[in-house]
């Protein structure tokens, strides 16, 4: 049985949590793949079925993984307010740039995580004092319920006949950020509900792992260095990936014209 002293040796101070970096890197790569498909569809007019259930499920999984890891990471960070502020500045920059290219991202995944990190900086003590298992079960169940409602409106992964919210709720785009709107389309859209429940599920999962003193395994990764690298630089990659992808695709399609 591993002693607490032994666990502390596995968890050196100021060392990144390798497994979380790897999972975050995987999520970023999956989201980049989806955005390549999105760009091929909307900029280069290729007939890719983005609304097909398997594509929607792919997008759903990658976003969920990224947010889940963000929630777990907050438990181990003492600088959530600072990190949230950085995310917020980059999110604002993304909105400004996408507005000028007439494809505005008003509340994408970076906006969402910025809000969650700032929120956790305020309410993190509540999570710390609560029951990890109770939080995990409650917020996991809430996410499943809200996700079913959200995706039933989009007629994508699930087709459950829930009544849609009145469209008048979204006239001023206020609830657009708060509650998922199935009629709103964007390359990157993660409203507070239901996605905050994924974030809190991750936070409580991280609390359970830490409280059980089982987080030595999180530090002992390193088998997938490329994923860990992507995870360590996930914010920079996400902020810069779209113009790079579009440039590469533009060059490829120009080459095709001359062949």
Task: Give an overview of the whole structure.
It is a single chain. With 259 residues, this protein is mainly α. It has one domain. The chain is 70% helix and 0% strand. It is built from eleven helices and no strands. The longest helix is centred in the N-terminal third of the chain and has 25 residues. The radius of gyration is 20 Å and the shape is globular. The N terminus is likely disordered.
Keywords:
259 residues, mainly alpha
Kindly state the percentage of residues in helix.
over 70%
Overall pLDDT: 82
Q: What is the number of helices? A: 11
- Rounded to the nearest angstrom, the distance between the terminal CA atoms is 65 Å
Oligomeric nature of the chains: single chain
Query: Structural class of the secondary elements?
Result: mainly alpha
Give the biggest beta sheet. Answer: none
* Cα Rg: 20 Å
List how many beta strands DSSP finds. 0
| Domain tally | 1
Beta-strand percentage? Answer: under 5%
Gross morphology: globular
Low-confidence blocks of residues: 1-10
One letter per element, helices H and strands E, the order comes to HHHHHHHHHHH
């Amino acid at each position: 049985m591993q002693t607490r002293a032994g666990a502390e040796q596995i968890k050196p101070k100021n060392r990144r949590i390798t497994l979380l970096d790897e999972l975050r890197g995987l999520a970023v790569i999956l989201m980049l793949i989806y955005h390549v498909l999105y760009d091929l569809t909307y900029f280069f007019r290729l007939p890719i079925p983005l609304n097909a259930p398997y594509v929607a499920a792919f997008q759903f999984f990658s976003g969920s993984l990224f947010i889940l890891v963000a929630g777990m990471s907050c438990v181990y960070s003492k600088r959530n307010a600072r990190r949230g502020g950085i995310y917020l500045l980059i999110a604002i920059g993304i909105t400004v740039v996408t507005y000028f290219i007439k494809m505005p991202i008003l509340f994408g995944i970076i906006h969402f995580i910025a809000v969650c990190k700032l929120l956790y900086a305020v309410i993190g003590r509540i999570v710390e004092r609560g029951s990890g298992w109770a939080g995990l079960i409650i917020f996991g169940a809430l996410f499943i319920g809200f996700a079913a409602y959200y995706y039933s409106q989009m007629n994508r992964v699930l087709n459950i006949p829930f009544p849609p919210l009145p469209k008048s709720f979204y006239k001023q785009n206020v609830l657009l950020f708060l509650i998922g709107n199935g009629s709103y389309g964007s390359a990157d859209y993660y409203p507070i509900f239901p996605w905050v429940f994924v974030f809190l599920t991750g936070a409580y999962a991280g609390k359970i792992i830490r409280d059980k003193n089982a987080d030595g395994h999180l530090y002992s990764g390193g088998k997938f260095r490329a994923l860990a690298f992507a995870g360590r630089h996930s914010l920079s990659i996400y902020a810069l990936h779209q113009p790079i992808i579009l440039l590469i695709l533009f060059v490829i399609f120009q080459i095709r014209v001359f062949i």
